[in-house]
Amino acid sequence: MQHKLCANCGFLNPSFKFCGECGTPLDAPSRPRELPAPDTIAIEQALPHGAERRQLTVLFCDIVDSTAFTEKLDPEELRGLLEVYRTCIMEVVLAQNGHIARYFGDGILVYFGYPAAHEDTAHRAVRAALGIVAAIKTLNPYLRTTFGVEINVRISIDTGRVVVWHISAQESPEAIDIVGKTPNLAARMQKLASPNTIVIGDTTHQLVEGFFECDALGASALRGISQPVNIYQVSGETPRQSRLDIASESGLTPLIGREQEAEHLKQSWTEALAAHGQALLIEGEAGIGKSRCVQLIQEYVENHSEAATLEGRCSQYYQNSPLYPILSLFQEHVVQFTNTDTAQARLEKLENLLQDYSVPTVEQNENAQAHIPETLPLLAELLEIPFEIQRQTETGIGIHPYSRPEQDTYPSGWRRRQRRQQTLEVLVQVLLKMSEQKPILFIVEDLHWIDPSSIEFLTLLIARIENARILVVLSCRSDIHHFRNSIQSDEKRDTQAAGDAQFGNDAVDREILKQLLQPAYANTLPLDPLTPAQVKIMIQHVVGDTQLPPDLLTKIVEMTEGVPLFVEELTQMMLEGDILALSSDAIDVSSPTETQTVAVPVTLQDLLTARLDELGPVKEIVQLGATLGREWTAELLHKIATGVELGNNTFTDFAILKGELDKLVNAYILNLDKIADNQFRYTFRHPLLRETAYQALLKSKRQQYHQQIAEVLQHSDSFQPELVAYHYTEAGLSEKAIDYWHRATHRALERSANVEGVRHITQGLTALETLSQNVSTPEEQEAVMRRELELQTTLGTALIATKGYASPEVEVAYTRARELLETLEKMEETSSKDETDISLDQIKDLRFPILFGLWLSHVVRGRLLSARELGEACVVIAKQTENRAFEVEAHRALGATLYFLSEFKSALAYIDKGIEYYQPQHHHAVPAFLHYVAEPGMTLLAYSAPLLWCLGYPAQAEERLKKAIDIGKDSNHPFSEAVSLHFKTVLYQYRGEVAEVDTAAKQMLQICQEHAFSGWEAAAMVMKGWTIAEQNRPEEGIAMIRKGIAAWEETRAEVLLPLFLALLAEAYQRAGQYNLALQTLDTAFVVITRTGERTYAAELTRRKGELYLILAEKVEAYSNENTAATLAEAESYFLEALAIAQHQDAKSWELRVALSLSELWHTQNRDTDAYDLLKPIYTWFSEGSDTKDLIRAKNLLKELEE
After folding, report:
1. Cα dist. 1194→429, 1175, 1176 in Å?
2. pTM for the predicted model, two decimal places
3. Which fold has domain 264-474+502-524?
């Protein structure tokens, strides 16, 4: 059966004399229409790569009630019918670059997006579906005449991620196969379509919404699909041409960060208005905002002048159609054709246009004036208007000429080249004449898809606008490699076949643009990525009132690299996917290789995949680099490439690999940065492009790559255990991964990178859980328990630094570790040494840090009695292990607990014993502070400072504190320095020295905020708030103290709360809010009763007495009787405080209480009592005579002696 192609509309007609679509005679001589051929190069390049994961759009089409044809038609006739049907479908599919994958009788399965992806893959699929429905309707009259039947089709389309691979080396459609939910879903959905209709799934609808008319059919249950599927019916295509057209209707995100570009565009228009023609090429990568800048100048021109805006757009569908964007522009905006115009009406409009503007033409005599009879045929043919002229040769210009006359009536001697040049000249003259009447904004977008003839026209136009009121605005992508050479010799053109409409196929570089922008008034306007700050502003516009977690905001900024389209789509995807509901820990913005998988929005996957498909075989190098990380050197990539199986073995040659990487830089896939002499680093230009390349790899290939990367990295000079751990994890080698995650955690904690430490150890536990699922023997289970014991112990330590000592997570970690420890001890007791490889000594070594971790949790949560028991147990275990590092920490634990219990002398004895055991060189060789967070010698000295002060040794306390501060600074361990500064604030607050507390609190706040020490930051806030209140800014100080206390309580900590509440009460007192001060002190006593922390009990009681003295002054004017009662109340609190201090042997607290009580008695003329009380405690002190309290006591005693 012979099929004839309509040259007018492209429809394939089986044995028709006239086209069934448009009625054009099929026997008339015509130039054959060029149908897009299968992308053979892409297929060949894809073959070696094997299977891969990618987003694919699948179309399924079949005939409605096809089984009825088996009864009506002879088998041979049925075969003929199917042949016509399949041929019809094939032509439509190929026109949209689809790939017919398989025939199922009358069913046809089509892939869009493989072997080569397009950024509008889903659009092509839907457009093909509409074309199929239209073609079948046109075909039916022929089928009815030939076979006595008509056919109806049902089409379904779905988009999703699949695995695609070549099942044979043959080039038949069946050589490619896919697996995944998408093809099954497409096949199931087809049953829901009515005859001659198209249904699409949710993802496809998301990709084509706005470009096609879609009606929601609701959610439907499909056989074999667990969840109902949203179905949409497509009824036609809309006139919208770009995402911007759609977004403009629903509301655009404000244009951000383009102020300079906007000013440049406006200034160029101002110049054009003054008859100084201008040309601007807006250049930037896909999604950077070129169209938004074009829209900006359009709106500016429309709002500020009576001008003509002429807009055309290049299309990837018409790269081989000469002058496509120029013709579209002229037809719509210059001649202003409408769909209802007849050929005669169009011809009249064209003739009127030429008369209105007196457009000249060039004949053999170059001085000839306007000659409409000769100009009109040129433009009529170009604009596809039937015109009765006789000619012998093709013009080579225009899309699908309507007539094919036989004799040439153009000026004699004209060659094809001259005629084309004359036609372009006429177009330019039309624009120049138009600009004399009104200024023109002439726009052509997407030059990366331009045809050679249009480039030639634009070059001519720009060269002629110097003195015209025309601003030419063009746009194109930065990665230009699609231009076709439009400069060819006349001789070459004359040798082309008459039907060849292309002016050349040779790919060229940026020389084309240089020629285009050669005049001085023609410039490039490059668009750079937005800054991180600008991206954050844009994100906020997208999310509206929704609050993004800071780490998620950071992740979006990192992944989008300042490309507005990426910012909008990724943010929108996260909003729609409810990712904002995740906790902050769910988004790990510090993944060691930055390769943590982030879903690429479906709206961007085709665009990014198309960029990768253009790379050919070098794509696998991009994927290997994507697996390695965001950045790397060529030398490192080469080491890895030599150890993996690649489709192209030449990449193992360093020179070849380096050359390919440089090509990737030129293709805007990679950036190249110099990091040292002769050392360069390659970085992926876009994280989302890298993510797309990585996600395309099969899991098995990923694991192979990750294993090789880990093996290379573990022996590298810049060894980073977290990188090795990550790659072993992704390689599925959990046991190796656990070791490196553990090492990475210790390294992070050593550097006070505590947040990272928690993440590393959590990853290790996840890997251990994976490993535990594959163990079966008791020995293997025992080994897993041992590994978990080590990891849980380390996790508890890391959590202390990040969450605070009292965090529930800390207690959970250490409690789990204790359970594991006890289980292992029982296993040790019931097993012989031959049956287990875990020794009792090893278990005891783990036992101490676990109990110590639990002690930390209990003491900070104010569980002082259980903390005392744990501290005593630590001392016993440390002595048994004969480990001096443990003994130091054990004595610190028990000493600190006794300090909070106000057993000051016993506490100092344990602290001093710990200091005696402490040997700096020994503890640095065995870095115990990695287990216990803060440097042990510093901690012991720091605790002893307030202890010695309480016991009446202020000078020794200050000396100990100075040593602790020095160790904290020298340790290069920020956490230790922060802890030492906390004890400094406490000691100097005890002493009442505001300036010293203020300095230390500032330093402590800075360190804690920089390293996320949340608990200690809260303590620093309280101390800083107290100093502010003491500087006569009580309201400001109160706010800060309350904020600090709230943050402290958020960590579940209760220790130190009595001190913090006392400082708040003092600030209330300074603000004159006495009732609040008393209430706050009462709250502090409640905490003391609950926890047993009595370190500050004497001072709290004394301060309550001081408050009653103030209240006594307030009531004195009203009632002497009430005043006396209030003074008596104050005296009773002083006496109670004195008893507490004496019971604690807290000489400094006793001195301060004695001062308050003696001053009260002095006002009551009880000087003897006052002197007898104050003199003994004053004379007891042998140091610290320059401290405030001793100076006050000395002065008061002199006054009492008088």
Report:
1. 106, 9, 12
2. 0.71
3. Rossmann fold (3.40.50)
